[in-house]
Backbone:
């Protein structure tokens, strides 16, 4: 049989950036610039008849046979091409082995300090959300047990994080203060850094709380949806009044009194809101946030607030528009604080290869007000049974089983998808809300995700070519926390 090489279509993606041919190597999530010979070989191997190396040696007379052999060998090693005599296995997509988890390497604890919230945002998806009067507060004992559980489950980590969540976390400041005091002493004993953060609607902030956050270097994200008209559509008080004015007054106070870390804005995009450029402009330039992140809602509990399919497309188109602005500014050495894009650049820069979509249930768990262990903050109060509790002990076996099942891509569309090591099947909660099954991949926006990642790869190559020093200074300090 004549030896013919064929491209393994699921293991690489060739991308043209200006006059360059780049290759995204799927198994390692690395981006390479292809030399002319490699590009030609891959293109020929991708044709119906495949690539006969003998034939190519004749047609590329300028190249030595050795050059061609060496390049072919490299491409075979990378599993980008395979020989027709190498068997079916050589053409199978490369997927990570499903490893058995012996312990859960927990480093982040999300504490739901109060199920109550002083606002009544119309789209709010929180499953355990209560009005202020009915809010159920976590006790200090539960919080303390949560910290001890994390340390027992996962000792000897280089750093740990505690994230305060709600409802509105500021509605239980006494507990936050107690936890900070306890954790600081406890982690100092161990000589390990502990980091605190929270997401707040900002309305309960005052100078004294801001000073406390400054002192303990809290990471702070504020939930705000954009300019007044957009924000006040949904982010309202229990009496139905818009909160923009109150929130922006508090943001001003925060910006004045706090500079320990960059302050982020977290925007929820729901029905009818697709122009992220306008929102980014307002939050970045007018209100002074260092970072603005967008969370499109496609499978919220209240379905009338979900973005429609067309709206979601419009959101991604708008993200690409702001992404282009990010590229132009990055070339000039400036970061415009567009978190979604910056996260994508960070993942590409670091070659992050994900066997799982996020740290939920593995590096991080969320503890509900009564001590139940949940995959993440979005599952507290949901019908998905908790994985044990901080009182009776974590259900390590159940959690490991959940993670191992999701790691196994057999018989899913993800096993052959070219962004499988970046998306890894998508958010568990999104799947839970959409398909009632957190294990199901988020198939409803795969094409948009793939377009977004392709845009990101091109953007990365473009930025790197024009300003190779952009990434490190902007990525390293961000990871410092
Ligand atoms: S969910 Fe869709 S986009 Fe994500 S890895 Fe699976 S198939 Fe690919
Ligand atoms: S499961 Fe979804 S919401 Fe929860 S941490 Fe992961 S990506 Fe975020």
Residues:
């Amino acid at each position: 049989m004549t030896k013919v090489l064929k491209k393994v279509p699921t293991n690489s993606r060739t991308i043209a950036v200006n006059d360059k041919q780049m290759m995204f190597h799927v198994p390692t999530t690395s981006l390479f610039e292809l030399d002319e010979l490699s590009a030609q070989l891959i293109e020929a191997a991708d044709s119906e008849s495949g690539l006969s190396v003998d034939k190519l040696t004749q047609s590329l007379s300028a190249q030595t046979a050795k050059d061609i052999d060496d390049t072919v060998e490299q491409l075979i090693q990378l599993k980008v091409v395979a020989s027709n005599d190498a068997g079916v296995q050589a053409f199978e997509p490369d997927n990570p082995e499903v490893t058995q988890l012996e312990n859960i390497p927990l480093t982040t604890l999300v504490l739901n300090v109060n199920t109550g919230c002083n606002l009544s945002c119309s789209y709010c998806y929180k499953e355990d959300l209560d009005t202020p009067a009915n809010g159920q507060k976590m006790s200090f004992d539960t919080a303390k047990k949560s910290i001890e559980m994390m340390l027992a489950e996962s000792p000897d980590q280089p750093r740990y994080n505690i994230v305060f969540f709600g409802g509105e976390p500021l509605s239980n400041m006494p507990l936050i203060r107690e936890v900070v005091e306890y954790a600081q002493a406890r982690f100092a004993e161990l000589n390990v850094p502990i980091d605190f953060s929270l997401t707040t609607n900002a309305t309960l902030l005052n100078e004294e709380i801001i000073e406390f956050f400054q002192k303990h270097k809290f990471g702070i994200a504020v939930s705000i949806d954009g300019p007044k008209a957009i924000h006040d559509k949904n982010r309202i008080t229990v009496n139905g009044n818009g909160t923009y004015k109150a929130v922006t007054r508090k943001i001003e106070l925060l910006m004045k009194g706090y500079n320990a870390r960059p302050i982020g804005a977290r925007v929820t995009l729901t029905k009818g809101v697709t122009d992220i450029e306008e929102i980014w402009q307002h939050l970045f330039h007018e209100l002074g946030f260092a970072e603005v992140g967008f969370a499109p809602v496609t499978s919220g509990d209240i379905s009338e607030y979900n973005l429609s399919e067309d709206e979601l497309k419009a959101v991604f188109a708008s993200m690409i528009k702001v992404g282009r602005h990010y590229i132009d500014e990055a070339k000039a050495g400036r970061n415009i604080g567009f978190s979604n894009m910056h996260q994508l650049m960070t993942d590409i820069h670091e070659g992050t290869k994900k066997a799982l979509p996020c740290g939920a249930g593995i590096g991080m768990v969320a503890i509900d007000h009564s001590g139940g262990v949940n995959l993440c903050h979005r599952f507290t109060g949901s019908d998905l049974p908790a994985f044990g509790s901080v009182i009776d002990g974590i259900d390590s076996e159940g959690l490991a089983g959940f993670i191992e099942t999701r790691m196994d891509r057999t018989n899913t569309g993800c096993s052959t998808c070219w962004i499988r090591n970046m998306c890894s099947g998508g958010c568990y909660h999104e799947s839970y809300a959409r398909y009632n099954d957190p294990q199901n991949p988020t198939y409803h926006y795969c094409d948009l995700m793939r377009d977004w990642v392709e845009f990101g790869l091109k953007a990365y190559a473009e930025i790197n070519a024009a300003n190779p020093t952009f990434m490190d200074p902007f990525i390293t300090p961000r990871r410092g926390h």
Remarks:
- The mean pLDDT is 91.
